[in-house]
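Quick one, T. Sequence first:
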Amino acid sequence: MRWILTAVLTAGTGVLFATQAPTPYKLGMFQRGDTEFIGVVLGDRVIDLAAANTAVDGGGQTAIPANMKQLIARYESGVRARVVEIVRAVTAQSAKPPAYVYSLTAVKTLPPIMYPTVMLNAAVNYREHGAEMQRADASPSVQNTSGPPPGTAPPGTQTIAGIWQRSSGDARWNPYMFLKSPTTIIADGEAVRLPRGRQRVDWECELGVVIGAGVSYVPVAQAGGAIFGYTMQLDVSDREARGDGRHGSDWLIAKNHDTFGPLGPFITPKEFVRDPKNLRVTFALNGQTMQDASTSLMIHDVFELVSYGSSILSLRPGDVIATGTPAGIGSARTPPIFLKAGDRTSCTYEGIGTLTNSVTGP
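Structure tokens:
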């Protein structure tokens, strides 16, 4: 049990009393029968938020949004306080759970956000991942093996005018982002479908930053205020050549086949994430650990990426930024390992959760 001491002045006298801190929860989208609903996740249980809002004392005073984007946009305008009230009411009950509380196994988990307006991904945002890509000669963007090590700014690197200001002494290369189509999104438990004729499909287990407030050109120091919470994205990647080498990397082919964007399973509000810059990340393929690292190894941290992305595109509530993957991808191994039908993937970030997906053929 966690408690926060709060000071209250009564008739000029300082009185201390204990206020219970909110029980940590996660948020997601679910389906039961033909009905979709926003759910509050407590361990292996999920609360139907709209139904609970009606049943718990104070019902009707706060309107519950219809979808996750609306909830995120209105979270700090009464919705968060109501969620906390409902969670406290549910956790205080020792008898049979109320009718609006289900086992997670009794409902279908949907993507927490089905169609973000913008989904941005950071490319090569871990030094060791850059090094393995360079060794595997898998990306034209890092083919210069005679230059500085991955993550280090090549000679002549300059500020990106109006977008990314390089500070004195910053030896890192500039951030690099690409768009990933929201139509690639599938839910936890759904299958990644291998594209027809493509044999070199790879995994990248990434921390997803969910935007909470509309921002444009937000400074790094203020970027945390624009974040709602965190989730996971499996950035599935097609490493197959495009046949002609035109214009270097083809991010459309590499990243945007149908089902190439597993997302979820839930969103953890930022207040329950101790330090997004120091979370353990692991990825397992068929139960074997392939990636084991920490977000502390990012070249550009989550706040820098939010700032950078918002300086290119205005970000809106519910938009998602995937922050890159650490070393351990399949294409960089000797011999390479690629996803095949029947595989099971598991992407985990400490305190955020685990995103699990199967793989099927075309």
